[in-house]
Input
Amino acid sequence: MTTTKDLTQALAGLVGDVPDVTEVVELATPAPEAFVRRNEKLLAGLAEAAEIRLDPSTGGQRLEARSVYRGEDGGRAVTFHASGALSLHAGVDPLDDLFDEVLPDEKLRGLVDGVTERLGLASFVDAEDRFGFERLWKLKAAGSDREGRVSDPVLTRAVGAYRHAVRDLPVLGRASGSVEVTGSGRLSSLTLTLRRFAGDGSGATVDKAVSRRPEEAAGEVAARLSRLLGGREEDVRLDAQQFAFGYVSLGRRRAQALLAPMYLASVVVDGGEEGERSAHVVAVAGSEKQYLRLPVGVRPAAVQRPA
Output
């Protein structure tokens, strides 16, 4: 059982230092064709550096929201027209080139950082920004026989997630970049979801906004979840996972003209034995003036398990 007040206090206790004033940063918004041309050059260099046999200069397959490029040996790349985000896949089978053993985190971190440095991903952001390591993920697989005996898990891939920071504030949302490596240290796949690239002409300060205090923003998050639960928040457990202040990226399929201050909350709703468990991400304005309007989800937070 968690009250709205309890959730507000828990969220406010998670956020770090919040600046009194935050800059609103202008982003470059070229036409989709400009994103495509830029990314074809970037993908060509990345594919060559990673020894992936893929040539984006062929033009690929132009779809409504993205362009897809396919190369030899299963290689694949994608450019998203609205945001300029991109992904590159080597075409390695998920169960090929596995790790011989589950290595310590520091060694796996060294592998993903080594590939990131070799590809020069940090050079894609402006010199006054940062592109830094955030989290390590380990992908594992196991098998079982007809008697139900399960084998020991095998480490299949190591994934490093990276975060872009502008004006010393993180750009929140999906990882700004991810690098997945195989057991031999080869690149398996990468993604880049950067809103501001080096030399793209963005970065002008269009306004300076007074930041909202964490308690006020946390209260808005709690109130939204209460409405989503139909006022039954005391019937469930609300577990505050994260509450961060920074800029927000609207996702790979959405254009965006500004980086504006936002709070991003992650909350788990646990209905106990008679209910279901669900995770919710809620973004609210980080300043008194709202510069970005976020898409509003309509999925209700279910309390009762389906029969």
Remarks:
- Residues 32-49 form the longest helix (18 residues).
- The radius of gyration is 22 Å.
- The first strand starts at residue 21 and ends at 26.
- Residues 4-26+211-285 form one domain.
